[in-house]
Write a structure and sequence with these properties.
A hairpin with a 7-residue loop joins strand 8 and strand 9. The protein has twelve helices and ten strands. It starts with 14 loop residues before the first strand and ends with a helix. Helix content is 39%, strand content 15%. The strands form two sheets. A five-stranded parallel β-sheet has the order 3-2-4-1-5, with helices on both faces. Strands 6-7-10-8-9 form a five-stranded mixed β-sheet. The protein has 310 residues and is α/β, with parallel strands linked by helices.
């Protein structure tokens, strides 16, 4: 029989890693509520955000901030409190601490000091998105947030282009369009599920190809985003046309024997622009031009997107 948390008089002097709702406040567990009520201190990524949760459940425990900008200093202070006999709960803004947030550093530091963190499990966006994505749930790899820009970002997409397992990423609304385009260029066309505002009133799960997702999310969007992407199967990662640092397309299987002058020819660009002016979507126009001129589809699609933007 599981132990009844209500029988505990108070919490031991330990670091408790407490999962909190990713949107719907009703998703918190009874054990998480019991832990938050009984610890001496709660360390939160954003105290204003966590205070709403505590207020909703009538929890009155001292709150302190713990985030990426004060992690080194505050982390040491929190561990000193545990060493002196106090219990500390670590929470993040949403979901499970330590997953793409500074909680990871506090957990590592606790282990280095011989402390045993206690996990209080609960919601996490990556698992929720995976199970409703319609894609294979095993094996999978969680990649976190892609680097924002530069060589590190290019290496991120190149390094993960051939992984055969399902890929899960987090992304911000303002970078979603750029990430989808980079995925298409580096990984080629694949199935993708984009989960937005999970468990909230305006929850949305988009399922389709990466190209379809690019068109679907052309308008400004808001909310937390989790992307679940099909892994590289036979032929999946082989038809992507990577853009090198010079801006020149890397030769793919569609064009290994093609002269570079064919790619550089202005003819196909003019016809592509004409199709876009006639009202064809970027995907339709790119598919037509790539077939007729025997060009890499990804390269033509990127050109179409740039034309529409301009």
């Amino acid at each position: 029989m599981p132990s009844n948390p209500g029988h505990e008089k108070d919490k031991e002097a330990k670091l408790y890693i407490v999962s909190t709702p990713i949107g719907n406040l009703a998703d918190i567990t009874l054990r998480a509520l019991d832990t938050l009520r009984k610890v001496d201190l709660i360390a939160a990524e954003d105290t204003r955000h966590t205070r709403k949760l505590l207020s909703y459940y009538d929890i009155h425990v001292r709150l302190v901030s713990y985030h990426e900008h004060n992690a080194r200093l505050r982390g040491g202070e929190l561990l000193d409190k545990i060493a002196s006999g106090q219990s500390v709960a670590l929470v993040t803004d949403a979901g499970t601490p330590g997953v793409s947030d500074p909680g990871q550093f506090l957990i590592e530091a606790a282990l280095q000091r011989g402390m045993e963190p206690v996990a209080i499990p609960g919601p996490t966006a990556l698992i929720s998105a995976l199970v409703v994505s319609g894609l294979s749930t095993q094996p999978f790899v969680f990649l976190g947030f892609p680097p924002a820009k530069g060589a590190e970002r290019r290496r991120f997409f190149e390094k993960n282009s051939r992984l055969a397992m399902t890929l899960i990423l987090y992304e911000s609304p303002r970078r979603l369009a750029k990430t989808l385009k980079d995925m298409l260029l580096s990984w080629g066309e694949r199935r993708v599920a984009v989960a937005r505002e999970l468990t909230k009133v305006h929850e949305q799960i988009f399922r389709g190809s990466i190209s379809d997702a690019i068109e679907h999310f052309m308008a400004d969007i808001r909310g937390e985003l989790t992307l679940v992407v099909e892994g590289a199967g036979p032929g999946l990662d082989m038809d992507s046309s990577l853009l090198l640092d010079t801006g020149s397309p890397a030769p793919g299987p569609e064009g290994l024997n093609r002269e570079s002058s064919d790619i550089e020819s202005p003819t196909w660009r003019g016809e592509l622009q004409a199709l876009l002016r006639q009202g064809f979507s970027s995907k339709q126009a790119a598919s037509d031009i790539a077939t007729r001129f025997k060009l890499p589809r990804r390269m033509v699609y990127q050109a179409a997107l740039e034309m529409k933007k301009g």
